Amino acid sequence: MLTPPTDPSTTSSSPAAGSVSPSRRTVLGVMAATAATVPGLLAVGSPASAKPAADPLPGGGDLGPNVIVFDPSTPGIQAKLDEIFKQQESAQFGSGRYAFLFKPGTYNGLNAQLGFYTSIAGLGLSPDDTSINGDVTVDAGWFNGNATQNFWRSAENLALTPVNGTNRWAVAQAAPFRRMHVRGGLNLAPDGYGWASGGYIADSRIDGTVGPYSQQQWYTRDSSVGGWTNAVWNMVFSGVEGAPTQSFPDPPYTTLNTTPVSREKPFLYLDGADYKVFLPEKRTDARGTTWGSGTPRGTSLALTQFYVAKPGVTAATLNAALDQGLNLLLTPGIYHLDAALEVNRANAVVLGLGYATLIPDNGVTALKAADVDGVRLAGFLIDAGAVNSQTLLEVGPSGASADHSANPITVQDVFVRIGGAGPGKATTSIVVNSRHTIIDHTWVWRADHGDGVGWETNRADYGARVNGDDVLATGLFVEHFNKYDVYWAGQRGRTIFFQNEKAYDAPNQAAVQDGNVKGFAAYKVADSVTTHEGWGLGSYCNYTSDNTIRQDHGFAAPNTSGVKFHDLLVVSLGGQGQYEHVINGIGAATSGTSTVPSTVVSYP
Q1: From CA 148, how far away is CA 104, in angstroms rounded?
Q2: CA 203 to chain centroid
Q3: Cis (ω within 30 of 0) for the bond into 251?
Q4: What dihedral do alpha carbons 20, 24, 27, 31 form, nearest 10°?
Q5: How, if at all, do strands 267-271 and 259-262 pair?
Q6: Residue 54 neighbours by CB distance under 10 Å
Q7: What is the mean pLDDT of each run of 10 residues along the chain (604 residues)?
Q8: 3 state SS of 245
Q9: pLDDT at 293
Q10: 8 Å CB contact between 306 and 326
Q11: With contact defined as beta carbons under 8 Å apart, do 3 and 300 qualify?
Q12: Which of 321, 341, 476, 548 would give a disulfide with 326, using CB separation of 3.0 to 4.6 Å?
């Protein structure tokens, strides 16, 4: 993502051949596991002379070489942090993947600078269990002070006391700040207040003031802040104590008192000497952090209930582990898949560490979740392969209709990339068919820079297609797709915060013509939908290949009272293409090169 500068001073305060079907494989997996664990018991229907079932896969084990664990007595912590940062600082499309984990305790004098594909996290149940007297820093020196490409890094579950009173977290997309306690302020801009375009905070407490400065947009959920200094284009808050009051478009604050439904991301922690994964419970009408008044509410799974995956493992082994009843913990690295991972069991967890990356080969789907309760997918990157995949992530099969309101499927910090690290193609990146799914922070990105980039080279027509009813998206970032970035056909869908750029590389107007409509909408609600609602949605155009391209609108929706939008904006970045309207035929056109948003406060 590249955007023009903003002056802070002017801003206001399918299975593989020969494999069994998923349902049969599940049955066989249970039988095999049972036969292997109960002496003398044979699988049902097996003659006594049959070969014994394969040994079940083990749960637990070490976390691999790229998970680096510290305790307060570990020597050379700063040197190790610096070593990995030097390697990862500018390795935007490199293969390195790392997770730093800090055991509970107090650490003094650290500055953990985070580069690409680097995660840092505490191992307590509460952020306050792991205190760093120092900083966790993201800046943009590697890119001449421009923070708009500071992707793919994260901080979770730590308490920070910044050295100078304010921690710098100058990030762009796919860089979550979760379950953090900052005992001071938080600066979201790079040194020198250069370009910045992020970002996401959840379940965090910032005692001091958050200064976004040059950040063009930001979403903060279920948190607490001591103050917020300014806004550029689109600052959205839901369930945030201390958030600015609703005032869009001047200043452009969109503030919801609560988040309708939320369930925090699973996380690894230590219970004594034993690793476990905590599964936070669902909240409705949530406000503030989950941990501020003591131990968070939820359940725990021992690490022995996870297959701890290492790069090089096959899709067949990962599916066997799932079918056996294990969850998946993906340690940092790159995983090539010749078949889809199939998550068929209710309440299964697939959790990545250190931006573990799934690459589907030969046109397969990377991961398919069945239409079952409580699946949790979190913390990994899907990178499209060179052979076109029809989909990269499928949540529920086509026609899924089960009610998951009591125990939804959650997709959290799951990021998708098409191109950039090399040619990649996918007709649709994410398809959500299951009802009540919560998409909590995703960046779905057809690359506009890097290797393998071109209008047909990394072809990807749709970013996200939502067919299921009652789906909620909190923090939806989708950019640069050849057709619709988001196409929403389910009933009663809701989105809180949407950030989009249209594809930079559209060669001409005809390439983006949607029937009689000029340009595919960034966010399209299907004509059949009667109920839908969105808050704080923005779309930007930057047609660098042909700056005469015009979009009839950024947003398209049925004109009916049940379809409502609040606080919409479109922006032409430096006059590289223009919007005629904001939504349908409503809202003023963008014009000129001044990069001034056109806004609509309420639709219809």
Answers
A1: 33
A2: 15
A3: yes
A4: -50
A5: unpaired
A6: 13
A7: 40 32 34 33 34 79 97 98 98 98 98 98 98 98 98 98 98 98 98 95 98 98 98 98 98 98 98 98 98 90 98 98 98 98 98 98 98 98 98 98 98 98 97 98 98 97 98 98 98 98 98 97 98 98 97 98 98 97 98 95 98
A8: coil
A9: 82
A10: yes
A11: no
A12: 321
Amino acid found at 597: P
Element (H, E) at 324: helix 315-324
Query: What sign has the CA pseudo-torsion 298, 223, 177, 336?
Result: positive
Q: Which amino acid is at 299?
A: T
**CA 562 to CA 530: how far, in whole Å?**
6
CB 147 within 8 A of CB 171: yes
* pLDDT tens figures, 137-154: 999 999 999 999 999 999
Is residue 264 within 8 A of residue 203, CB to CB? The reply is yes
C-alpha angle 77/81/85, rounded to 5°? 170
- Residue found by looking up tokens 């067949």 in the block: 316
Residues composing the chain? 604
At 51 the pLDDT is: 44
- Closest of 283, 280, 248 to residue 267, by C-alpha: 280
DSSP 422-444: S---EEEEEEE-STT-EEEEEEE
Q: What is the DSSP letter of 327?
A: E
Backbone angles phi, psi at 298, to 5 degrees: 160, -165
Q: What are phi and psi of 96, to 5 degrees?
A: -70, 140
In the set 342, 394, 501, 580, the catalytic residue is: 501
Compute the distance between CA of residue 205 and CA of residue 287 in angstroms, rounded to an integer.
Answer: 12
What single-letter DSSP state applies at residue 604?
A: -
Structure tokens at 25: 């494989």
- Largest Cα–Cα distance in the chain? 81
Query: Who contacts 172 (Cβ-Cβ below 8 Å, separation ≥6)?
Result: 1, 147, 148, 149, 150, 151, 196, 197, 198, 199
| Measured distance CA(490)–CA(433) in Å, rounded | 8
Lookup: tokens for 594? 């001044």
Active site residue 456: no
